[in-house]
Amino acid sequence: MEGLQTLQYRMRTQAQNNYYWKCIVKILSSELGYFQYEMHNILKKQFSPINTKDMNTQEFNDYCEMIRIWALTDLGIVIPPPNKNK
């Protein structure tokens, strides 16, 4: 289609990956009693139709946000947003 632009995103960043493992996975695994790798596998099955290694920055951001919303609304677990995790 003429005039239609496709946005190109780079692959997820190391900062995003660090936030995911050191904040999201760590908090949820601790609160729910899983090992971190178990929690990661549960989250992938529940929230991601593709392998998280193949996600671009926007997809990974959306994935993390879906998990944060689920954790708060369904579990009552607050996970700070990435900019607060420094």
Key terms:
single chain, 86 residues, mainly alpha, globular
Describe the largest sheet. none
In what range is the share of β-strand residues? under 5%
Compressed to H and E, one letter per element, the order equals HHH
Low-confidence stretches: none
The structural domain count equals 1
What structural class should be given to the helix and strand makeup?
A: mainly alpha
Topology (SSEs and partners):
Blueprint: H1 14-32, H2 36-47, H3 57-75
Written description of the protein model:
- This protein has 86 residues and is mainly alpha-helical.
- The protein has one domain (14-84).
- The protein contains three helices and no strands.
- Helix 1 runs parallel beside helix 3 (57-75).
- The longest helix has 19 residues, at 14-32.
- The relative contact order is 0.19.
- The model has no long low-confidence stretch (mean pLDDT 89).
Quick recap:
By secondary structure, the protein is an all-alpha fold. It is 58% helix and 0% strand.
